[in-house]
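Archive record:
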Amino acid sequence: MVKICCIGAGYVGGPTMAVIALKCPSIKVVVVDISVSRIAAWNSDHLPIYEPGLDETRGLGAGKAADLTYWESAARMIADVSKTDKIVVEKSTVPVKTAEAIEKILTHNSNGINYQILSNPEFLAEGTAIQDLFMPDRVLIGGRETPEGRKAVQALKEVYAHWVPDDRIITTNLWSAELSKLAANAFLAQRISSINAISALCEATGAHVSEVAYAVGKDARIGPKFLNASVGFGGSCFQKDILNLVYVCECNGLPEVANYWRQVIKINDYQKSRLVNRIVSSMFNTVAGKKIAVLGFAFKKDTGDTRETPAIDVCKGLLGDKAEISIYDPQVTEDQIQRDIVMSKFDWDHPVHLQPMSPTAVKQVSVAWDAYAAAKGAHGVCILTEWDEFKELDYKKIYDSMQKPAFIFDGRNVVDPQMLREIGFIVYSIGKPLDQWLKDMPAVV
């Protein structure tokens, strides 16, 4: 293999190709994308995504990109421009059987050229993507169980073998590879919804969700990861992949299985609604005209990605009760925040130039340059992303600048609630015992 062309320069394609270019200097790496602005950003000193370690990663293929359309048109484009046999690898999260659809398009437009379709799903976590690429838990490659298919799988395996141990490279058939990605994300989201469901019970009984999670996670069969109670999961993959899993189950006559996975999303939505209702009920059952500072808008720390972030639904819920919101996030732009708040669900899944035009900014939403500006004059502070800097804020300074009584709603459990209470705050932390104030004003979902 001497040249790789990656279609899509986003959160998967960009980091993955940067690492391949770095680790495989003999392979020429080219990245193409439909977004002109994204292409320009990759070719500049200001990368279009934030990922720790990415800015230092360079290879022979850096700085090359061209336009393209959606994956079906991309497949047709591959057929149009190919002069020799090709291995086509689907890398990002796709519905099961996408490889088969790509294969049909290429086969019917082959002009005598042979194509092998591989599924090589990514298992990256935003915020640690470069580290995950350098030291992956596993690399999964699925292909046809034919001599040609096995040869194509081996060719891709040899690329990863430049830095990935052989025992971490797993080979399967196409459908197992595609389904494994959906199943992995569903299992991870299920763990989050499970601990979030327990967090509601902890608040009702006086238990500490962090103590429960620690005790449960010490069981070697369960382990501690993805057991941090929060306002809910976000990101581009979890909800979409579960919905796709639900759809596949329904199409294959498995309604009971579909309903099981659908419940993971229902608990996630319930957790976001629970926080909004807690905020409203705590403030005498109305936030109309009250300023609420929102700290954090990205779906998790160490990324600027806002796709499906819980902050969107929380902010929309507060705006529905006429709150005035001031938002601070160290990596998310004001334009992105305004766009997310007014955009319909999953519109973000389209390239920017095909998204609806950004309408007039929501007047009740402002974006602050730091946490102190966001909190000044606010009735409440709502922490929605677990950025490390939020642990180090001067909360006495914040308290002094706020309306009284001053509330903090910690949707990520990043701040010591007892320290906040000693300052004077009324505190709500997910899954922690409630202040007497909150007990006297129960939230109704």
